[in-house]
Amino acid sequence: MEIELADVAYDASVWDVKRTFGAILHSDDFHNLDPKTPRAVNFKVTLNPGAGGVQNNGSGSLILPSRKIGDRLLRRVYEEGKHIVINGRKLRLFRSKRPPGRGLRETLEKTPYLEPDEEEKREDKLRRLDMGLHVEKVQFGVFYRKPQDPMTAPRVFSNEYEISHRDKGAGLLWFEYDHRLIRIQLGDRQTEEIGSNIAITFSNIRKVAIGIDFGNPFVCFELLTPPMFERERFNRTLTGNDWRDQRKFRQRLDSLSPAHAAVAPYAHHMRVIMHTEADIHTFRELCQVAEVQRPVLAHVEAFDRGFFAPKQMHKFHTWLAQFAWPVAFQIEALLRGGFLNTEDLLGHFRVPLEKLQREMGAEAAAVTLRNFCDALRTRGPRDSVVDCWRNAMPESVSKREKGAGARLAMRRFELPTERERDMGKFQCHHVTFTPTRVILEGPYVSVSNRVIRQFAGFEDHFLRVDFRDEDRLQYRWAREVDGTTLLTERVGGILKHGFELGGRRYEFLAYSSSALREHAVWFVNPFEHPTQGFVTAQRIRDSLGDFSNVIKKPSKYAARLAQAFTATDPSVSISRDQWEEMDDIEDEHGYLFTDGVGTISPKLGDMIWEALCTAKESLRRVQITPDAYQIRFLGFKGVVVVDHRLEGIKMRLRPSMNKFEVPDMDVAPIEIARWFDRPGTTYLNKALIMILEDRGVDKKAFLRLQEMAAAEITTASDTVADTVGLLKAHNLGQSFSLPWLLRGLRAAGLGMRAEAARDPALGDLGETFLQSLVIFAQHHVLRDIKHGARIPIPDGYLLVGVADEGAMYAKEGVENVFTLKEGQIYVCIQSEDDEEPVYLKGTVTISRSPVVHPGDIQRVQAIGEPPADKVCFFRGLKNVVVLPAAGKRSLASMLGGGDLDGDLYSVIKYAPLVPTLHKDAGDYVGLGTRELPDGRDSTVDDICDFIVEYINSDVLGLLSDRHLMIADQSKDGTSDPACIELAKLCSQAVDYPKNGVPVDIFDSPRLLIREKPDWKKAEDSDPRDTDYYYSSRALGELFRSIDLNNLKLPKSPTPIPSGGVVLPPLREQPLSDAISVTLRRLIEGQLTYFENKDQNVAEMKDLFMLYEQELRYICVTHALSDAPDIRLQEEEVVVGTILAVCSQQRWRRDRMHRMRLHASELVRNIRMRLFQPADPLNPEQGELVYGLSQAWLAWDFGMRNRTVFGARSFSLVALGVVLDTLYKLGALVF
């Protein structure tokens, strides 16, 4: 309903009127008390503009969502005499004859009311920032010092490329508050058709300075990454439809010109020459308005040094050709990372680098240079580049040590032997292409795959290549930006034509499905293999199998190739007579109930598990043998589950698992992608909470669960058992075996502070490094709860889905078979600590992530223990969920379009979360697979085109975000038509990698209002109140209920230059800490001594240095930002978390995964250098005693140096070996 306003005070603003009506409409007389929609009345106020400087002309309108509210307001004014006064003037109200537009009325009805204070604040900022500053020159370059200068010395700006607009019309600089960026437009709208834009996001500015240099007023930007470059057609034709006109009218570029393209990869800092001195002062004021860091007044000298001029770069690459590839890679990393320039490399460091390779060899020199690069990133303010070089040199080179000392120092460069190497992993070099840069990392450990294992010894010919935006996040385009050309030329050009790096030519090979989601692929440098001849990318692809059934479908063809590149662990090989195919189970309509699942015999399952345990020490402590494995085998992929009817060594696979044909092999390996030895924990998440709330689950149920979780986190440090429970529940500390360590210390007689206070006989762990780790673990879990609503669910389990094979039993003639009916499931849980299995029985919910459609959560019946008097396939199966092979439709397909080739399903027995309202499952009908339009066979170029299109159209995360925000904004929640449409688009986006049919996000439903719910602040590193509203949904209350400021993180030692570690003068007796004192009896019982000789302890220094350097590299490489002052803390690596805020959670998860894998391999390496028996499964007593003595020395060294970065976690690695050897010697039982 629209109400006309008259006699409005001329000095009143829209916000004054809105505040006045808000106070009335949100009083008890008007507030909507409906418990289903407990929202304040939303409305819109418009004032007609006034003349002569007044705010309005005395009239306006008030638009309300319903006539009922409008009638009540008019009665209040005219029948009850409660007049409305604004700024001393009585307002008159009239019923308007014009009905409000339907769209506006629905928006007001659906969306929440926004407080006018923040809107007014934003409008005021936009008004004050509505101006431009004239720009005369834009210079791109680098800041530099001489190699001998410390970081405290002043820097000089080298201008490597300049754009001058002094003679042809100035450029313009302005602030875009809503987009959080500064834009510099180069070109004259009056005389030019096309102009260029430089966009600098606020978050990309590390430092900003203003000053005057020889009469030229300047602004200097030190940027974390290159800015964004765009092209814009000034005088484009407009249609009058703002949504269409403001779409994709700017084209993203990799550079501003060919000359700029030559230096852009190396020089991205900026110096902007302004028109007048007044402009730089105005710029400083605008920074304050826009909430950008205030510029400092500085004198920055500028020269044209030509570090990256074509002639200089030619000299560099000619010189680089003399180095072995691993060394050349690291030298390129120094240049491309901005740590050194060509003058540094061709001048000061030329001779030292040549000497390094000559004296140390390629492998050792490459490791040294990687450490040098790391030292440059972490150097202190007094350190020069030369200091970092000196500190990175191994003692055997820099000090010319002789004999045993030199040999010990060189141990860090030894390659692992065949017995030491985990064949499921390899050292991988990583390359990231951004629009302008090439970022080089590694090598560090990555999980191997079938193809790379074939070429052992040639792993450095394979590169993992990522395509990302400048900030290392995935490409995301603003609505006005078209990135298609950039991706086609930059990404497509690299994929199709390859690239040269360190003197080698690399060509595109393939990708794995998980890597594609990270926008990553594999490249290979062709090489000569001693047995397979000349190996090229095409030859590798041709050797993988017969893809003729999908060759006309590029996306499907690439997905089949991807199977061979899935990260897997080798297990056992079986002969052709030990595996066979069997039929899928389907209904009369062709619906598959066994899509992606087969069976194996118990004996084969045991063989696979034994092979994994032999390769992975951590698995040897697992008591439960898995009943299911996710595998890759020849052209098959999927899950195999134990079938107790199968005898001997037998595997049965299905047609639905067979993705391509492979020539028959007498013996073929079974590769393991995942094993399922324990039930996973099911957690709430934002989407699950939103849908469950809409389906009748009380908001209080979520709040209770969060309160319970927060209480458990807070008390987790009370006892060792509670701490172990927290770590295991959230998969923390696994790289350092923290849960196992804590159990061992408890068995030895130590407890957490509260336990030690209750029992004086226990040693106190409260003063040890472990207490600090517990605080980081608590912060990680609380952060996940607040930022992601990741709340553990009691009686909730995350299990791999398998099919009931009962129908196959019956088909094969077995009688009296028990099978699951439609709507039934079977779940049997047994965790490591459970003496007996637990059978779920009764009503449960089952779902599969991601949940988007309201029907993605289904209620089913768990049957409990199967009847004893019938034959049952799944009797005895543990830690899987068995789905029925009966009904109108596969249950898996009803859960977000799932299948059984490895999908994990959440099964929740917790009654308060079982929804009361039923919703039919979404109709996940496939769109078919896109074929090439001319019907020809796919080539590798077609796969490259698909990758480019995928990167440009990878919008699943954006669609999911938009779905959640609209559900929060609309009173209809996830049942809003826009949300249902987005659920369909999400399903299409999930299938896109296989069917090749993209989603156009620009035509998808839009947000109802600009502002986002306040729980979205979690993903913003610098949230502004003007961008958010107070959410009344469960997610909003959950978000606001957790305060992370209550936990203060302990300070971690800062990395110091390599080689600076010594045994300091002790202020206390060695081995006098609580852990050492408690272990004394056990140590003396095995070694006959307790205290170590100082010289023996000192011998651990080199091993510690190896550990410390790699730990430092982990802290720098796996941080979310490339900023030189950003690195992970030691505690984060040990716990396995990254606490920094990130707008893309997928990037944070990927970095955490890489960091954990890297840390696990480091720990494994150090453990094996301390204790490496000839037979890991059956070590001899002498080996155990020697391992204990070495580990005790390492523990002592770490504790003596515990104020040094890395020493505390080093001591934990040693402590793990101490406890392990004591356990195997029988001295410690736990």
Task: Write structural notes for this entry.
This protein is an alpha+beta fold. Helix content is 36%, strand content 20%. The protein contains 40 helices and 46 strands. Strands 7, 8, 9, 10, 11, 12, 13, 14, 15, 16, 17, 18 and 22 form a 13-stranded mixed β-sheet that branches. Strands 28-34-31-32-30-33-29 form a seven-stranded mixed β-sheet, with helices on one face. A hairpin with a 2-residue loop joins strand 23 and strand 24. The relative contact order is 0.07.
| Class derived from helix and strand content | alpha+beta
Radius of gyration in whole Å, from Cα? 33 Å
SS summary, helix count? 40
Ranges with pLDDT <50 over ≥5 residues?
396-413
**Number of strand segments:** 46
- Which of globular, elongated, flat, extended, rod-shaped describes the shape? globular
Average per-residue pLDDT, rounded, comes to 89
- Oligomeric composition of the shown chains: single chain
- Percent helix: 25-40%
> Main sheet, how many strands, which sense, barrel?
13 strands, mixed
Q: First CA to last CA: what distance?
A: 73 Å
- Proportion of strand residues: 15-25%
